[in-house]
Specification:
The protein is of the alpha+beta class. Helices cover about 40% and strands about 25% of the residues. The longest helix has 16 residues. The two termini are about 40 Å apart.
């Protein structure tokens, strides 16, 4: 039996019809009229032990038959380390010799011109099945927290950035 949506299909993003509020969460209206809720999973820095595998197993076991959940791992431009380094270089005192000044200027040019480093983001996409699914979705932060992970629901602006990054990645920026 084949899946109604092929694995890896981005058609729902490309042909998205806007956003709708589901409970207190923004949902993408997919090409077929279904509603898609999104969240990001990160490690809780206050917890030493992170048990992601166990968390995923528990989440999948708690789902009702017929529900659809996709786990996305995307590589995302991460400008923060570059910006921090650039600020540090700009804060250096004026070098006393020409060689050190050339090095400083070269580092500044490098931070402005070279492509950004990437970070991996783990995201959930849940196809909204109705009110029962919403109750389950809203309980996920507590479930993930018990395994040392944080779950943050994505607002419409972040979902739009995600769709753009997946469908139109610019690896130079």
């Amino acid at each position: 039996m084949s899946s109604p949506t092929p694995v890896g299909s981005t058609q729902g993003f490309v042909l998205g019809q806007g956003f709708q509020l589901v409970g207190k969460h923004d949902a993408l209206i997919a090409h077929d009229g279904s509603l898609r809720l999104f969240a990001e999973i990160t490690a809780n820095p206050d917890r030493v032990e992170v048990r992601a595998r166990e968390a995923y197993q528990t989440v999948l076991a708690s789902m009702q038959p017929g529900w659809s959940l996709r786990i996305l791992q995307v590589y995302w431009p991460d400008p923060l380390p570059r910006q921090e380094f650039e600020q540090q270089v700009r804060g250096w005192k004026k070098p006393e010799n020409e060689g050190a000044e050339i090095l400083r200027q070269g580092l500044l040019i490098f931070t402005q011109e070279y492509s950004l480093p990437f970070t991996r983001r783990t995201l959930l996409e849940f196809s909204y099945p109705g009110q029962e699914g919403l109750t389950w979705w809203e309980g996920l932060p507590g479930l993930f927290q018990s395994y040392g992970l944080r779950l943050q629901f994505l607002p419409a602006a972040e979902i739009q950035k995600l769709a753009y990054q997946i469908c139109n990645p610019d690896l130079r920026s």
